[in-house]
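Discussion board: Methods & Data

I've been asked by a reviewer to show the raw model output for two of the constructs in my manuscript, not just the figures. I'm not sure how much to include, so I'm pasting the format here to get opinions. Each protein appears as its amino acid sequence followed by a line of discrete structure tokens. Is this the kind of thing reviewers expect to see in a supplement, or should I convert it first? Here is construct A:
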Amino acid sequence: MTRTTAPQDRSSGTPIERYGHHIAGNSVLPEHGGTFESINPTIGRPWAEFSMGDNSIVDAAVSAAEDAFESATWRALSPTRRGRLMMAWGIATSHRTKSERRRNAQPYDLINMGKSG
């Protein structure tokens, strides 16, 4: 997902994170737009805003995944090398330094469930 600065939380004025779609190396917005907020139940306020995917987003993502999987370059890699590339991609796209990732390692699901505020 592509991460940007979102509008401010209407109740507190605090900026929240905005997540869009990232497909085939590009930031992609749904044709019909739309977003939804995820509320942290512990504090009762939004912590992030997500783009809603429509059929065009799903089709683009599936097509990109099929193209990548079928490419000769990917198929020629060993499973170990594929895993290392996926880990490197995760680190490169996290938008955080190594120390920031360590401090912010808790899964987003914990926030969604109100386990962290």
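Construct B, same format:
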Amino acid sequence: MLHDLLTKHLATATLRSVAADVGVCHMTVSNWAKGIRKPSTAQLARLADVMELDAAERRAVFAEAADVQPGELARMVGAQHGAEPSV
């Protein structure tokens, strides 16, 4: 998911501009795009802002990073905040 969204975003932005906006080296963004490395949670949050991801895309990207299904991530977050798990 992240790879696809980042590749799509890089069609209209440069590695250097994305890297500058996120606060990392352009090679770091290149490694993310190639799937060689994964961004930290903080970097992923900044990257999601830079790419202007909608709520569903953010959930999917963060779920992928946490290696869980998007629905499971929502239940985990809800449970941490005292919300009743959705069925």
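Answer (T.O., handling editor elsewhere):
This is acceptable in a supplement if you add a one-line summary per construct. For B, something like: Residues 55-66 form the longest helix (12 residues).
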